[in-house]
Amino acid sequence: MGKVSTGVLLCLSVLMMFGVSSAETFLSVPNSVAEEENATIVVENSDVENFKVTLNVSGSEATYSDTFSASEGTALETIDLSLENLTQSKYSVDASVFNESVNFSDSSTSGFKVLSGITGAKMVDLTSKDISKSDCPLNKSKSMNDECKLFGVNVTVDESSNLSELSESGEPLTASLNGGQNYVGLVDTESPGEYDTVFWDDDSLFRELNETGADERSFVSPGEPVKNFRIGNQTAQLNTIISGENLMFSVPPTSGEVPFRQSDSISYAFLGYSEADQVLGSAIDVTPVEGIDMRAVSRNLGDQNTNTLQTSNSTTNKYGFTGIGNIQSANVGRHKVSINNVSSEYYEVKSFSISYRILDPSTGTRHKVYRPGETVKVEAVPTLNGEKINYDSIRIELTDSSGQRFKKTLDQSNSAIFNISEDISGGRASVSIKVQSGGVTQTESTSFEIKKFKYIQFH
């Protein structure tokens, strides 16, 4: 992953020729720069090769000033923001350009913001299941908080690996796990030294097929999660996280843990990064930010109640991760997570689930496509932990491809039948389902296709 500088680029063009009474000064300043970065100031002029620039940067807590000269029409100044104590604040920029030999001077003013070194933050959901703390077979010494839910592995340069063929630098990073039962490789496939791809195999020779031509037992293609891996006595799925030149694994919640239920326990950690290629997919590729204090809250978008999210260690480590936190989920609804006042993502808490089916009522079978004039049956079943629950009412609404709406409210049945108009054209019909149970309302939605069949006449 290529690192994109977030430093300030200050371009000041002084357009001036001897004997010309006026000149144009152009000052360009980006909106913001991270406090962990350097601020690069560039002054250019295509007509005057020798000039000086006096720069003044002023904020509420600190100031910076310097005078520097041009060489071949370009003057460059690099400010180390942390060294000069230019911390989070707004700063004004005053640049004066002068050339005494031609009796020229001009100035321009702009400004920028210095932000926290973290430019991105994510809440990483982890499994809430009990995983044995005494048995972390991948890499016990590098597990975080003595847990296997989030852990790093030591990868080292392995030029003899067959992954060298895919590495732009010829230096893939590999590690032996589980006492040699599994191997992992980190490869820079696009730019030398910028590791972007993770391989996993059951031996040190990374390949999809073994010597007999059969599939390798544990080979995982890049970007895919490691499935059905056992940690202790638990079966877990591992997500790969490339953090700079380090490799992390996380154990995400299983399908049985999502969506969250009221009073469920939620395990999580926070990731701070300055850039990312892919975030929170099966593979994450980030440039981590170490030493950031992460403070987070979640807000229920329904009742606006807030919940503080506190981890065991709120300061990010070299991987960009905090420690692990656990909370009980808040009230039913969607919850927006904000980390250091940066909006991150949402999680949803439900009191029950709604399973549904769209059927042909005459046969009881499912179809992907229905024709105008046909009849469809929509079934909705509210469940909790896989068991059917009692409900107060079910409302099913069908909107056909012409925009016409049909609604039915049920209190004794869990299915409704709708007739598709014969005059309707093809398109998609949407179905929304709203279930009320015990004073709580949950919704689901789906759709199906309506298509006119063409009859082919044979002669």
Summarize the structure.
With 459 residues, the protein is mainly β. The protein folds into 3 domains: 9-115, Immunoglobulin-like (Sandwich); 120-350, no CATH class; 353-450, Immunoglobulin-like (Sandwich). Helix content is 0%, strand content 52%.
Description:
- It is a single chain.
- It is built from no helices and 37 strands.
- With 459 residues, it is mostly beta strands.
- It has three domains: 9-115, Sandwich (Immunoglobulin-like); 120-350, no CATH class; 353-450, Macroglobulin (MG2) domain (Immunoglobulin-like).
- A hairpin with a 2-residue loop joins strand 18 (234-243) and strand 19 (246-250).
- The chain is extended, with a radius of gyration of 30 Å.
Largest sheet composition: 9 strands, mixed
Output the radius of gyration.
Answer: 30 Å
Percent of residues in β-strands: over 45%
Distance between the termini: 62 Å
User: How many discrete structural domains?
Assistant: 3
Q: List how many beta strands DSSP finds.
A: 37
Structural class: mainly beta
Write the layout of secondary structure elements.
Blueprint: E1 9-15, E2 24-28, E3 32-34, E4 38-44, E5 52-59, E6 63-69, E7 74-80, E8 89-99, E9 104-115, E10 120-126, E11 143-144, E12 147-153, E13 156-157, E14 173-177, E15 182-187, E16 197-201, E17 226-231, E18 234-243, E19 246-250, E20 260-261, E21 265-278, E22 283-288, E23 296-300, E24 306-309, E25 325-328, E26 333-339, E27 342-350, E28 353-360, E29 365-366, E30 369-370, E31 375-384, E32 387-388, E33 393-399, E34 405-410, E35 415-419, E36 427-437, E37 440-450
Parallel strand pairs: 1-4, 3-9, 18-22, 20-27, 30-37
Antiparallel strand pairs: 1-2, 4-7, 5-6, 5-8, 8-9, 10-21, 11-12, 12-19, 13-14, 14-15, 15-16, 17-18, 18-19, 21-22, 21-25, 23-24, 23-26, 26-27, 28-29, 28-31, 31-32, 31-35, 33-34, 33-36, 36-37
